[in-house]
Design brief:
This protein is an all-alpha fold. The protein has a single domain, classed as Orthogonal Bundle (Endonuclease III, domain 1). Helix content is 62%, strand content 2%. The chain contains 10 helices and 2 strands, in the order αααααααβααβα. The chain has a two-stranded parallel ribbon with strand order 1-2. Helix 2 packs antiparallel against helix 6, helix 2 crosses helix 9 and helix 8 packs across helix 9.
């Protein structure tokens, strides 16, 4: 008999179940995906996450697969297209914020090398494991999300309050807020530990490889 999985979300909604089991809390380091969640969390303000998940594919199509380089180049014509699209969330302020944030993200990439490097610095490059035992103890914001919000606002980003930033951090795995009894809590911790271990191994071997290549070049000279 198949063992029933224990989830921290008490829901049978297939959209929520799939998102919980496959995405929520998984560390993201790709700028395009990080931008996608920045946009989705911005659109979610005042709405349900279920609605966002239902409109996600339409939003992805409307926003050029959430490619920040393309969105940053949107003109008034694109704004009118988006506002007139019945399949997306036609909120002028949120659409304008998405375009604006794509432009600001480009500036962050120029300064830090990637948006990934910028956002993950707020948790020192590795997920915060809160070891929550029940959902009532789950915070809606944190010191890290408040700092992130301040920095984003200072750089001109919109719809990036501390609560939205915390939801973003949960979504992209900067914090692991799966409850400790949830089957995903341990999976994500192991996944993260393995990634950190591999990154450390690469870092430790990097200089040795460089010296080896240098020796080979010297020998061949």
């Amino acid at each position: 008999m198949r063992k029933k999985l224990i989830r921290c979300w008490d829901t049978d909604n297939p959209l929520y179940v799939k998102y919980h089991d496959e995405e929520w809390g998984v560390p993201v380091h790709d700028d395009r995906t990080l931008f996608e969640f920045l946009v989705l969390e911005g659109f979610q303000a005042g709405l349900t996450w279920e609605l966002i998940l239902r409109r996600r594919e339409a939003l992805r199509k409307a926003f050029d697969n959430f490619d920040p380089r393309k969105v940053a180049k949107y003109t008034d014509k694109d704004m009118k297209r988006l506002i007139g699209d019945p399949d997306v969330i036609r909120n002028r302020a949120k659409i304008a914020a998405a375009v604006n944030n794509a432009r600001q993200l480009a500036q962050v990439q120029n300064e830090f090398g990637s948006f990934d490097a910028f956002v993950w610095k707020f948790v020192h490059g590795k997920p915060v494991n809160h070891r929550l035992k029940d959902s009532s103890s789950m915070p809606s914001e944190s010191d890290e999300s408040r700092e992130m919000s301040r920095e984003l606002k200072k750089r001109g980003f919109k719809f990036v309050g501390p609560t939205m930033c915390y939801a973003f951090m949960q979504a992209v795995g900067m914090v692991n807020d799966h409850l400790v009894h949830c089957f995903r809590y341990g999976q994500i911790r192991r996944m993260t530990s393995e990634r950190i271990k591999n990154a450390k191994a690469k870092s430790d071997h990097g200089p040795q490889v460089s010296e080896l290549n240098k020796s080979r070049r010297t020998a061949c000279a």
